[in-house]
Amino acid sequence: MARTLYDKLWDAHLVHQRDDGTALIYVDRHLIHEVTSPQAFEGLALAGRVPWRLAANLAVPDHNVSTDPLERRGGYAAMSDEVSRIQLQTLDDNCKRFGIHEIPLADRRQGIVHVVGPETGAVLPGMTVVCGDSHTSTHGALGCLAHGIGTSEVEHVLATQCLVTRKMNNMLVRVDGRLGAGVTAKDLVLAVIGQIGTAGGTGFAIEFGGEAMRALSMEGRMTVCNMAIEAGARAGLVAVDQSTIDYVHGREFAPTGAVWEQAVAVWRDLHSDEGAVFDRVVVLDGSAIEPQVSWGNSPEMVLGVSGRVPDPAAITDPDRRGGVERALSYMGLAAGMPITEIRLDRVFIGSCTNSRIEDLRAAAAVARGRQKAATVKQVLVVPGSGQVKAQAEAEGLDRIFTEAGFEWREPGCSMCLAMNADKLLPGEHCASTSNRNFEGRQGFGGRTHLVSPAMAAAAAVHGHFVDVREMLS
Amino acid sequence: MQAFTVHTGLVAPLDRANVDTDLIIPKQFLKSIRRAGFGPNLFDSLRYLDEGQPDQDCSARPLNPDFVLNTPRYAGASILLARQNFGCGSSREHAPWALEDFGIRAIIAPSFADIFYNNCFKNGLLPIVVKAETVDSLFSAVASSEGYALTVDLPAQEVRGPDGWSVRFDVDAFRKHCLLNGLDDIDLTLEHADKIRSFEAAHLAQWPWLSRQTT
Ligand code: SF4
Predict the structure, then answer these.
(1) pTM of the full predicted structure?
(2) pLDDT in the model for residue B131
(3) Residue B35 near chain A (CB below 8 Å)
(4) Does A188 score more than 80 pLDDT?
(5) What's the 3-state SS for A253-294?
(6) Domains along chain B with CATH numbers
């Protein structure tokens, strides 16, 4: 029978199926970071258990780390935030105690776990990948079955190498046509979420396909899968093709020699079969997508840059109207105002959505020879990993940013969730390349607008949103 | 884990769709390496007028008088009535920990985000999905009668209200079994240890690149 990519990955990892629909799925790769693991390790220790298969685990600190170059140079000792320091230290201690391999803060490969995984080859096509972080969906870009889990599940995976789960339904999001110049993977996925809503993918694994998806680089595919969770889907997927195999080839932990050949032969089958049935299919025209900007407190509250913020008076459904009113009031926006009139206080270029080399190149292409607007207080550029940082510096991107008045930082999650010192002040508007615009996500009272790296750089230069396509011509 | 069988409690309405985990427990509290003590910071940004900090004494902080859980009539509520897509956003289990620590035992909503829904079961918290119309009528009932309480009966998979009102709900047999008995599902999974071991041996032999050390 014709199977979807998700079906194939599920079948290849199914250990035990229970009658009630729940199942035990084998986990190939477990990624660990400091925020969602301490209680899991504690539980493991209390029960006197040990990790089932040590080599399946890889840890890296990212959420809490300082991105300030000075503070970073001093290691944990120089950290001004004591509570964060304890959490980071606890990760190191737990990894040592249980024998789990960690890429520590001082390692040149350290970075956001979802950037580090694929980039080092620790995540490979066909794997089941879990992590105590909802954006684990990112890894689906490599043809992995990857999704976020809670801390109890982290403990469960450590102890059993399995996850108790139930099979999701299959959804295909097909984006036909070609994206226009200046329109990126981020715009594509925001447009998808705008169309299906933040709960549209609940209960589904979403496979992204179609001409526009096939044309995306691996970085772009990761951006799309990263935000599958923002559409409610725990997992996003993209079929393996030559781009995938080329991307993986030569990575540090990727197989070599005869095993590489053997792996590639398996990976080439990681696509949905002809005639495979999806429970739901959504089709978009990629050529019609404009650069996107979110205006409200949910990623589905998103519009093309030429749009106007909605007017609640024109909405008849009382629930929707209430939601729009509350979002406009929190965001401090006037009903019906053009997106391009939204003024920014800060700009954040980074996060596991958009901190890879291609993202930094796109932002630098806009920033080159230009200056941050005087009204913009701060523009943070935070590379996703040490390897991205080194590559960007080798290409001179850091200089383009600093010459434009942007700040060039050390790798980490940074202002994506503002657990460290990088945060918005109440009322500030931020053009952000991250993935969530929830109330207070980037700082108490902060106002987040989700955009692509190119759009963020353009907003930094102008002090308000502009259609980046006008700056590229 | 705390077992859940039959629970009767006061219902508090949270009339807002897409309540995300950042709203349930803001990120600054995720720095804790403990599992308990998140209750005072549940819905922190809605509940207080200032910005909360970890390890702060919350008793002296200014309360937001408009927030539903701060109103006297809902004091001591243990059942939360919510709108669609409750618990969307991050995977943080701190969200159910905070709800549980606050004293919430069950949440009734038309839909939940997947990861949050899973996390609830691991913490003795029962998420109950009922039809949107049923949720609507429950919101009206709670608003119109002070002290409105419900009984959640997990063995019978039923929620019962005053005047003989009731509604059935679905739950996976496995999850129900774990919750009813307060079972740690690691132990249950390890009952299949032999099966996992033989699966693993075959899987790693077939895909040898998986065994590679990342060091
Ligand atoms: S960058 Fe943001 S979304 Fe990604 S893992 Fe870090 S905090 Fe989560």
Answers:
(1) 0.95
(2) 97
(3) yes
(4) yes
(5) CCCCHHHHHHHHHHHCCCCCCCCCCCCEEEEEEHHHCCCEEE
(6) 6-211 (3.20.19.10)
